[in-house]
Specification:
single chain, alpha+beta, three-stranded parallel β-sheet, 15 strands, 20% strand
Length: 351
């Protein structure tokens, strides 16, 4: 019988852990695997292997039609108060992990609300211990829930409505427990931008599906053509969560939005309408329901925009030495690290 969805444990960390596991128990294995891959930064390391026509062993005389194999063990230690990671406790967990027989993949995931990695984590073997905060878990969930063109070229299947509901409820619980957005905001949101970069260069906006969930950040960057664009835009106004990009759409929300934002919306919609009438690019934007970010401009004259020395080339590779995208949905990186002008994403993430 599945665990109760949102646990009634009185102790905070037990309640949060039980709720995470209850949601993982109810959603598809593919989604759980994807979340764990993001947390552990192993984007193509499969936890479950399914193959056709496999010869089992060198001397095997028969070849079965198929094989399903799983050999992994992930332990989870959760803290709901920053600065409470206990080295002795984690060392004890590692002894338990190492004692589990016949397991190829072993990890101890330490999940905390700390903004930066607790120092004691550095005293433990990095191949076995993975630290993540609740922001990272939120980002992993947001990443797999993102519905955009990246799904058309990825190997990931679409998320069912039930899975989507359960994961959103889990994020809401994190918010209610005060586990998200802890610490100062040094994060920059990086979004896939094959088309979004055109919107930014023309209109100084980022448009995406309505009510899409993001962390609160001050800056936004664009990943396109295998690189992070050198222009890191400042988010000038609180995003509009949902609006139809027409004159009527603006009138429908004008009582809830300040005059400056209304003026920017009018200007954006006017340009989109003109392009539609002239049959130019982005004609599909006019009349669409979108979430809208107003950003600082790409030009050097706009001092709000951070201009790096060069685009940051993505050179990430998996354990099989195959390249993979820096982000399929959204990712957060350190503003401090960006301002050091790394040349590659490996250098960026190592800073």
């Amino acid at each position: 019988m599945p665990n109760p969805l949102f646990s009634r444990y009185s102790q905070g960390e037990n309640r949060v852990t039980a709720s995470i596991l209850a949601v993982f128990e109810r959603i598809s294995f593919a989604l759980v695997e994807r979340i764990l891959q993001i947390l552990c930064e192993t984007p193509e390391q499969s936890l479950l292997t399914i193959k056709n026509q496999v010869k089992l062993g060198i001397d095997a005389e028969s070849i079965p039609d198929g094989v399903i194999q799983a050999s992994f063990s992930y332990l989870l230690e959760t803290k709901v108060v920053a600065g409470k990671v206990d080295l002795v406790q984690l060392q004890s967990h590692l002894k338990c992990l190492e004692a589990i027989p016949h397991v190829i993949q072993k990890k101890l995931i330490v999940l905390t609300p700390d903004y930066e990695k607790p120092g004691v984590i550095n005293l433990l073997p990095p191949d076995l211990v993975i630290w993540a905060n609740f922001n990272t878990l939120h980002n992993a969930i947001a990443d797999i829930l993102t519905m955009d063109e990246a799904w058309l070229t990825s190997s990931f299947s679409l998320v069912s409505e039930q899975d989507r509901f359960l994961l959103k409820e889990l994020v809401q619980m994190f918010l209610a427990e005060g586990l998200l957005n802890s610490g100062p905001s040094d994060s920059v949101l990086i979004v896939p931008a094959r088309d979004a970069i055109k919107d930014y260069l023309k209109y100084s906006v980022y448009l995406c599906q309505p009510n899409r969930s993001f962390q609160r950040v001050e800056y936004l960057g664009f990943y396109h053509g295998g690189s992070i664009d050198r222009r890191i835009a400042k988010i000038l106004l609180p995003p509009i969560e949902e609006i139809t990009l027409t004159e009527d759409g603006i009138r429908a929300v004008q009582e809830t939005i300040d005059e400056l934002t209304i003026n920017r919306l009018n200007n954006l919609v006017a340009h989109l309408k003109k392009e539609k009438e002239e049959g130019k690019d982005n004609t599909e934007r006019y009349g669409d329901c979108m979430k809208v970010f107003f950003l600082s401009a790409a030009s050097l004259e706009d001092t709000h925009t951070i201009h790096l020395k060069q685009d940051i080339k993505n050179d990430l590779r998996n354990s099989n030495n195959r390249p993979y995208a820096f982000t399929m949905g959204q990712r957060y990186v350190s503003l401090t690290a960006l301002q050091k002008n790394p040349q590659t994403t490996t250098e960026l993430l190592a800073t």
